[in-house]
């Protein structure tokens, strides 16, 4: 695994950062990426607690506009006030996980594809949301997260709230 140098986490001019695959994020406690507008994280590994590493990284990006996140059963806490576009894919098909939280009041566009059986989902109200596509399977009986989509102009929901049948992986599309 390759790690980024710590100086990368305090770059004043970086506007777009794409990190993929064989990369390990060892996010320091002091992150400052004030110019970062677009962040792509595809199947990266985190050096310590996954939730705190990602949270530290995002908290150091006060002007982040777009986030594309592909992960494998990562508990996610996305609290980014400036975020306008979020694409989140979970590759951990039909596994169990802790959950995710999305708190992004400026969000205009949201796409979630997630087949993890979470203990919870929490999506805060998004008053500026224009379009949302949510494709999830879960066993949680709490529908409160759906209230977050009441302001959307365009909404696609593909939800299943029942237990997943055990089928061979090649039968799932």
Low-pLDDT sequence parts: 163-173
Total number of β-strand segments?
Answer: 13
Largest sheet: 7 strands, parallel
Number of helical stretches of at least 4 residues: 1
Note the run of SSEs as H and E. Answer: EEEEEHEEEEEEEE
Query: Approximately how much helix is present in the residues?
Result: under 10%
Structure in words:
The chain is mainly beta. Helices cover 6% and strands 39% of the residues. The protein contains one helix and 13 strands. Strands 2-4-6-8-10-12-13 form a seven-stranded parallel β-sheet, with no helix packed on it. The two termini are 30 Å apart. Residues 163-173 have low confidence and may be disordered.
Question: How do the strands and helices of this protein lay out in sequence?
Answer:
Elements: E1 2-3, E2 16-20, E3 23-25, E4 38-42, E5 45-46, H1 50-59, E6 66-71, E7 76-79, E8 85-90, E9 96-103, E10 109-114, E11 117-123, E12 131-137, E13 154-160
Parallel strand pairs: 1-3, 2-4, 3-5, 4-6, 6-8, 7-9, 8-10, 9-11, 10-12, 12-13
């Amino acid at each position: 695994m390759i790690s980024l140098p710590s100086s990368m986490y305090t770059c004043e001019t970086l506007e777009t950062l794409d990190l993929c695959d064989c990369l390990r994020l060892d996010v320091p406690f002091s992150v400052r990426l004030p110019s970062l507008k677009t962040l792509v994280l595809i199947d990266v590994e985190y050096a310590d607690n996954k939730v705190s590493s990602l949270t530290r990284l995002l908290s150091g990006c006060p002007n982040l506009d777009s986030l594309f996140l592909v992960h494998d059963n990562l508990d996610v806490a996305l609290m980014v006030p400036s975020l306008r576009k979020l694409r989140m894919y979970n590759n951990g098909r039909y596994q169990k996980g802790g959950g995710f939280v999305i708190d992004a009041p400026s969000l205009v566009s949201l796409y979630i594809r997630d087949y993890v059986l979470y203990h919870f989902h929490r999506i805060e109200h998004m008053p500026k949301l224009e379009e949302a596509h949510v494709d999830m399977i879960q066993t949680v009986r709490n529908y409160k997260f759906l209230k977050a989509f009441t302001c959307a102009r365009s909404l696609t929901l593909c939800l299943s709230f029942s237990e997943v049948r055990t089928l061979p992986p090649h039968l799932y599309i």
